[in-house]
Amino acid sequence: MPAPRTVLLTGAAGGLGTLMRGLLPAHGYTLRLFDQRPVEGAPDAITADLADRAALREAVRGVDAIIHLAGISLEASFERILKANIEGTYNLYEAAREEGVPRVVFASSNHAVGYTPRPEEGDPLIEVGTPRRPDTFYGLSKSFGEDLAQFYWDKHGVETVSVRIGSCFPEPTSVRMLSLWMSPADGARLFHAALTAEDVGHTVVYGSSANTRLWWDLSTARALGYAPQDDSEPYAGKLIAEQGELEAGNEAHAYLGGHFVTDPPIWPY
Ligand code: NAI
Ligand code: 15L
């Protein structure tokens, strides 16, 4: 596959989309932007819903690849998740198939495996082959998205890298995030690797920085050429002083998905 240059970024108005709009052009990409909300400072962005199949088809026409971030990014009712994340991601893949887009990078989530017990010190890291154990309807939709990606590769030859993102924010803000944090710069490095690696078929990777307190195995991401440069450890002292260490016996601290297991944040829109 020739190196992709023009990339459709769905979810461009969101938190991660905004960070990637700033960082991906330096990796050589021209971005076409898509979101149901207007994208600040980008009058050419396509404002449309993932339910609008005609708009999606036009949006993907002629791009070399798609980074699919759009969707409900927290917990919501099954009906809302079904429309935005399950049907919406299906619509996106149909548009990619119809227009011959060869590669998708799918924003999966740690919440697809959120009920996996977090490793204690000395336990092996969580591998990508661990059984999926969604912690929410939101996590369930990411699990579906990974299956959809596998199906579109096997059936239609559309390649995908599914990135089970940990927590991609400018800084980690909780003790749990010390294990899951992906710095924005590492996020852009990982998306770049996912866009350019050869012959990915459908590959699942974990998305985080090279954190000292890492819970999961980054080897499938590294095999794509990803070389993370950051580590959350400089934030550890302050966060642990403020919040304390994760506690054994506290259900909200027991699983990879953290508080999504006990009290998930609800999509506010
Ligand atoms: P966000 O909520 O800030 O952004 C999501 C964007 O998708 C919003 O701008 C929203 O308007 C758009 N959107 C929602 N439904 C849509 C629809 N039906 N049609 C068109 N646009 C729609 O979320 P964030 O943090 O930027 O995350 C981006 C993606 O990465 C999401 O898919 C999320 O599930 C995933 N992810 C993010 C993580 C993170 O740490 N930021 C961690 C794991 C996964
Ligand atoms: C996610 O999947 C969410 O989209 C993001 O907002 C964070 O909450 C992240 O997981 C996390 O687990 O920290």
Structure write-up:
The chain has 269 residues and is α/β, with parallel strands linked by helices. The protein has one domain: Rossmann fold. The chain is built from 9 helices and 7 strands. Helix 2 crosses helix 3. The N and C termini lie far apart (39 Å). Bound molecules: 1,4-dihydronicotinamide adenine dinucleotide and D-galactaro-1,5-lactone. 1,4-dihydronicotinamide adenine dinucleotide binds at residues 11, 13-17, 35-37, 49-50, 69-73, 84, 88, 107, 109, 165, 167-169.
The counted number of beta strands is 7
Q: Give the neighbour order of strands across the main sheet.
A: 3-2-1-4-5-6-7
Name of the top-level CATH class: Alpha Beta
Q: Please state the structural category.
A: alpha/beta
List the secondary-structure elements in sequence, H or E.
EHEEHEHEHEHHEHHH
Task: Give the integer mean of the pLDDT values.
Answer: 97
Helix content: 25-40%
Number of helices: 9
Uncertain regions spanning at least 5 consecutive residues: none
Indicate the CATH architecture: 3-Layer(aba) Sandwich
The kinds of small molecule bound in this structure are: 1,4-dihydronicotinamide adenine dinucleotide, D-galactaro-1,5-lactone
* Main sheet attributes: strand count, strand direction, barrel closure: 7 strands, parallel
- Radius of gyration, in angstroms, nearest whole number: 18 Å
> What is the CATH homologous superfamily assignment?
NAD(P)-binding Rossmann-like Domain
